[in-house]
Write a structure and sequence with these properties.
By secondary structure, this protein is mainly α. Helices cover 46% and strands 8% of the residues. It is built from two helices and two strands, in the order ββαα. It has a two-stranded antiparallel sheet. 10% of the residues are buried. The chain binds zinc ion (2 copies). The site of one zinc ion has 7 residues, from α2.
Length: 50
């Protein structure tokens, strides 16, 4: 079963891969869908909020 990115048509073999893709390519938190201007802000948010 494939995991799909909710922001584009990309598909992945694991949920972890989707999370990494979303963070890298969309700067968006996969857990709460909040969007950030840069990867550092996103990474900080994930550490603090999830
Ligand atoms: Zn995507
Ligand atoms: Zn979040």
């Amino acid at each position: 079963m494939a995991y799909s990115c909710t922001h584009c048509d990309a598909q992945f073999q694991s949920a972890t891969s989707v999370t990494q893709h979303v963070g890298l390519h969309h700067d968006t938190c996969a857990a709460c869908d909040e969007r950030f201007g840069d990867t550092d802000s996103l990474r900080e948010h994930i550490h603090q909020s999830h």
